[in-house]
Write a structure and sequence with these properties.
Helix content is 39%, strand content 14%. It has eleven helices and twelve strands. The protein binds zinc ion.
């Protein structure tokens, strides 16, 4: 494969050398349009778009040049809405994804389209994912730059495996890298390794999202050694794993020489309708500025060098999108 030094963003291709400080897993919006339309009037387009522009303006002012947004089918992706937000943010790149997000069954739309239908049909997901990368998302010219799928506490269900294999095959066609949502407490990474090895995906093009929810440094080092990029990407989601544990894990992996295999993020959003608004008060650190305000100073205090921080925020994201 030819070397690629540009990456698609919501505003078109950008040289990878210009991505700068990159948060590797942040959503703009996470929405459930059908449920929201049925059960609530919480969603109000104009104020939410304005609010998002405000939050992302603050993020750009903190020095972040790029966010990688893994919002796909199942998370309420609407690329035109993200483009509206991005129009007002000249200093911020937003990198879009394609794929499907489920912990169990495929989205119902796919249930009787493809393998498992009565009778079995060819898999339509591969062509759809490739179309998003090569032609554009949702009828726009905005192209996806990477693939996203998920595996969680249900393990490798038929639906999860179907999507993961479609992502692997779409990767083989396009070369775009692969991000997988994991649950490290269930060692979902072992399934990811088996399926994506089987699909011929080089671990160096695979980002194991959410493995930073684990403090098992030996196991994380083993994944890094195989070449995977480790998503230390839920800073601020303290009820899942607290600040000190997250920082200690990154410090320990840096001490072992793995700063070249980690990326940092919060997995937050400008607005998410999956959580009762009254619960957000229990997540005071789950916002876009937590890494710059609290995490980076703590890492520096613990001996992580500026070079190592630059690797995690600049070099590693850039190299994941480049192909050689
Ligand atoms: Zn996410």
């Amino acid at each position: 494969m030819a070397s690629v030094t540009e990456v698609e963003t919501v505003r078109g291709p950008v040289p990878t050398a210009e991505l700068g400080v990159t948060l590797m897993h942040e959503h703009v919006f996470v929405l459930s349009p059908e449920s929201a339309a049925n059960w609530s009037d919480e969603w109000d387009e104009e104020p939410r778009v304005t609010e998002a522009i405000g939050k992302l303006t603050e993020l750009a002012a903190a020095g972040v040049r790029t966010i990688v947004d893994p919002t796909v089918d199942g998370l309420g992706r609407d690329i035109r809405r993200v483009a509206r937000v991005n129009e007002a943010l000249p200093g911020l790149n937003i990198i879009p994804a394609t794929g499907a997000y489920t912990y169990a069954d495929v989205p119902h739309w796919f249930a009787q389209r493809g393998p498992g239908a009565l009778p079995d049909l060819p898999e339509p997901m591969v062509d759809l994912f490739v179309r998003d990368v090569q032609e554009g998302i949702q009828g726009t010219a905005i192209k996806a730059a990477f693939f996203k799928c998920a595996i969680d506490h249900h393990g490798l269900t038929a639906g999860v495996e179907r999507i993961m294999r479609a992502v692997g095959k779409a990767h083989a066609v396009t070369g775009a890298p692969v991000m997988v949502h994991n649950n490290p407490g269930q060692d979902t990474m072992a399934h990811v390794q088996r399926v994506l090895d089987d699909e011929g995906v080089d671990p160096r093009r695979v980002l194991l999202a959410h493995v930073g929810d684990s403090t098992d440094v030996d196991r994380l080092a083993g994944l890094a050694e195989r070449g995977y990029l480790l998503g230390m990407d839920r800073f601020g989601l303290d009820p899942i794993l607290g600040f000190d544990d997250r920082v200690n894990t990154v410090v320990a992996l840096c001490e072992r020489g793995w700063s070249g295999r980690m990326v940092l993020a919060h997995d937050t959003s400008c607005y998410i309708d999956w959580i009762d608004p009254n619960l957000m008060q229990f997540l005071p650190n789950w916002h876009y500025l937590h890494i710059h305000q609290q995490v980076l100073p703590a890492l520096a205090e613990r001996g992580v060098t500026q070079d190592q921080i630059d690797q995690m925020l600049v070099t590693n994201p850039r190299e994941w999108f480049e192909r050689t």
